[in-house]
Design a protein that fits this description.
Blueprint lengths: L1 H16 L4 H18 L4 H13 L1 H71 L8
InterPro entries: DUF4296 (IPR025381)
Protein name: DUF4296 domain-containing protein
Length: about 140
C-alpha cells in the first residue's frame, strides 16, 4: 500500500505542477493512475476500499504514510544529488570554456603589440642602415 500511495502522490505532484485545466488533468492523469494501479496489480476500486479501511484505523494509516514520506524523501534526495552533480559538471565545463576565452582575449591583446614591435624594428633598421632598404 505504501508503494502505491507513493506513486499516487508523485503523480498528483506532477499533474498539479503543470497545466491545471480539467480536460488535461483527466486526459493525462487517468493514464498515469491506471499505469500505477497496473504496476501494483490492483485497480481503483480496490484502492478506494483499502484506503477506506485504513481510514478507520488511523494508527495503521499513519504508519503507512510514514513509509510513504520516507520513500518520497529518499527519491527527492537522490534527485537533488543528481541535480547538484549536474550543476557542478556544468560549472566545471563553463569554467574551462571561460578560461579558454580569457586566454584568447589575452592572446588577442598581445598580438597588436607584436605588430607595433615589428614596425618599430623596421624603423630602427632604416635608421641604422639607410641604404639597406631600397626606397621607391
Amino acid at each position: 500500500m505504501a508503494g502505491l500511495l507513493t506513486e499516487i502522490h508523485i503523480i498528483d505532484g506532477r499533474l498539479y505542477t503543470g497545466l491545471q485545466t480539467p480536460d488535461s488533468l483527466y486526459k493525462y492523469g487517468m493514464g498515469n493512475y491506471l499505469a500505477a494501479f497496473e504496476r501494483f496489480h490492483t485497480d481503483s476500486g480496490t484502492f478506494k476500499k483499502s484506503l477506506n479501511y485504513y481510514a478507520k484505523y488511523p494508527d495503521k494509516l499513519t504508519d503507512i504514510y510514514d513509509k510513504v514520506d520516507d520513500r518520497i524523501k529518499a527519491l527527492a534526495d537522490s534527485v537533488n544529488k543528481i541535480s547538484a552533480q549536474k550543476r557542478k559538471d556544468d560549472l566545471k565545463a563553463d569554467s574551462i570554456k571561460m578560461a579558454h576565452k580569457a586566454d584568447s582575449i589575452k592572446k588577442a591583446a598581445q598580438k597588436p603589440a607584436k605588430a607595433i614591435n615589428k614596425a618599430d624594428s623596421l624603423k630602427k633598421l632604416k635608421q641604422k642602415h639607410p641604404d639597406a632598404l631600397p626606397k621607391k
